[in-house]
Design brief:
- The longest helix has 17 residues.
- A two-stranded antiparallel ribbon has the order 1-2.
- Helices cover about 45% and strands about 30% of the residues.
- With about 60 residues, the protein is of the alpha+beta class.
- It is built from three helices and two strands, in the order ααββα.
């Protein structure tokens, strides 16, 4: 997201959704290329879990 200069997640999530659709239309399994993971981030005195993705090279290609 940051590498492609998206400032907000909501803007990048639209790109991610289109890439997932392209992956599906190409005959690949979405879950093989876009793996959902949880990431713990520190938020002041507490920490919270946020959703993140591990992407294959093919998934990165579709996003770019």
């Amino acid at each position: 997201m940051a590498v492609l200069e998206y400032a907000e997640w909501r803007n990048f999530s639209k790109v991610l959704d289109r890439a997932k659709l392209a992956c599906k239309n190409s005959g690949y399994e979405i879950n093989d290329d876009f793996v959902e993971v949880n990431k713990i981030v520190e938020a002041g005195a507490t920490s919270k879990s946020i959703m993140d993705y591990k992407l294959t090279r093919y998934a990165c290609y579709l996003i770019v």
